[in-house]
Specification:
This protein is of the alpha/beta class. It has a single domain, classed as 3-Layer(aba) Sandwich (Alkaline Phosphatase, subunit A). It has helices spanning about 10-20, 55-60, 70, 75, 100-105, 125-130, 145-155, 195-200, 205-230, 240-255, 275-295, 365-380, 385-390; strands at about 35-40, 45-50, 60, 90, 105-115, 180-185, 260-265, 305-310, 330-335, 345, 365. About 50% of the residues are buried. It holds the Pfam family DUF1501. InterPro entries: DUF1501, TAT_signal. This is Twin-arginine translocation pathway signal.
Length: about 400
């Protein structure tokens, strides 16, 4: 029987309850949430939100454009060889560990993409528009659900555990009336048998928190079992790095009933010292993608990973070795279900006259269209539903055939 959706727990309610159940509330501001949902079928979808505006021009470098070297002198004089993707594009060297995926057709990119957001270049507004999936260039306060949740609402026989959220970064992309589950790493429920019985007694008449607390207890017990398995050598070695840990936990759930996972990786706002800061972030992202591949095992073959950011960055570097908020950027795609080994999209040129407002990479495609085509290829949604309900006012255009 399909469960009714449950409202997410408020932070106030969680913190009040944490003192009772022994949760590490001191770690609260440092947590990054992972959100999951179960859906019919075998396809797996992972959406990674890269908060802070990743510089797509530095990640997927258009070295074949004659203006690129002029704009990005500091980025290119790093003494390392950029892995070639083709005659026109090269990959940032910090992502060199992903080149085997590129060669295997399990890594791809779409360049010169953006949401409809323009001009103001605010992180808050840009992330809101990205996760809400709206077709307007200003946030819509009345739109309270995200495009992943609207996709879930359209799935028949949807099943999910009770929803609850922990952590500073709320994943609007999956919020809404369709049920989903939220969990944050390093949040542990240390309950004695007596404490557990007390908790159940206190909230037995509160269906919202009773269901959520039972789910939290169950997940905590499962994590403890996995930790014990790690200690006895009966499980895969633990993965270092927070992003990789998020991905590793996501993979463990995706091997079971969960088929949709989303989490965020922050720190992409590179106004200064971009060479070093971006290299660290890309290393974390690469580790997360490799952790998904390793953890998913044979399920990797039916998995699509979309790593999306709110907007790109300026074509030219600034005076502090960084870049400022821009417009066009890049989408990163991975997984055994994608047609990788390609950089999708129409390149707009970096000449001054071709730049958006003579400062940013001109977007030539809506990043939502790639997400929509991925959903159509994976789950078989009708194009009309995707263009009107999941992504309002979207014109998907021609099928880029990103799903194999």
């Amino acid at each position: 029987m399909t469960q009714k959706p449950a409202r997410p727990l408020s932070r106030r309610l969680f913190l009040r309850s944490a003192s009772l159940i022994g949760c590490s509330a001191a770690a609260w501001p440092l947590l990054s949430p992972v959100t999951f949902a179960s859906a019919p079928g075998d396809a797996r979808l992972v959406v990674i939100i890269l908060r802070g505006a990743m510089d797509g021009l530095d990640v997927v470098r258009p070295i074949g454009d004659p203006d690129y070297a002029t704009y990005r002198h500091a980025s290119l004089t790093n003494g390392k060889t950029d892995p070639a993707l083709n005659d026109f594009y090269a990959l940032h060297p910090a992502m060199a560990d992903l080149m085997p995926l590129w060669k295997a057709g399990e890594l791809g990119f779409a360049h010169a993409v953006a949401t409809p957001y323009r001009d103001k270049r605010s992180h808050f507004d840009g992330q809101d528009i990205l996760e809400a999936g709206t077709g307007l260039d200003v946030p819509q306060p009345q739109v309270r659900d995200g495009w992943l949740n609207r996709m879930l609402q359209a799935m028949p026989d949807l099943q999910s555990d009770t929803a609850y959220a922990v952590g500073r970064d709320e994943m609007k992309v999956i919020e809404g009336s369709a049920p989903s589950m939220s969990w944050a790493p390093k949040t542990q429920l240390r309950l004695s048998d007596q404490s557990q019985r007390l908790l159940e007694r206190i909230y037995e008449d509160d269906p919202l928190f009773h269901a959520a607390s039972q789910e939290a207890i169950e997940i905590s017990a499962r994590l403890e079992a996995e930790k014990e398995a790690q200690a006895t050598g009966m499980a895969r070695p633990a993965i270092k790095g927070q992003a990789a840990q998020l991905a590793g936990f996501a993979a463990s759930r995706l091997r079971e009933d969960t088929q949709i996972a989303t989490f965020s990786i922050g720190g992409w706002d590179t106004h200064r010292n971009q060479r070093n800061v971006l290299a660290g972030r890309l290393g974390d992202l690469s580790g997360a993608i490799l952790a998904l591949k390793s953890g998913l095992g044979r399920d990797w073959g039916k998995t699509t990973v979309l790593a999306m950011t709110e907007f790109g960055r300026t074509a030219r570097e600034n005076g502090t070795g960084g870049t400022d908020h821009g417009t066009g950027g890049a989408l990163i795609m991975a997984g055994g279900a994608i047609r990788g080994g390609q950089v999708y999209g129409h390149w707009p040129d970096l000449a001054d006259h071709a730049l958006f407002e003579q400062r940013d990479l001109m977007p030539t495609a809506d990043v939502r269209a790639y997400a929509a085509w991925a959903m159509r290829g994976m789950f078989g949604f009708e194009k009309g539903l995707l263009e009107s309900t999941v992504f309002p006012s979207l014109d998907m255009g021609d099928d880029p055939k990103i799903i194999s």
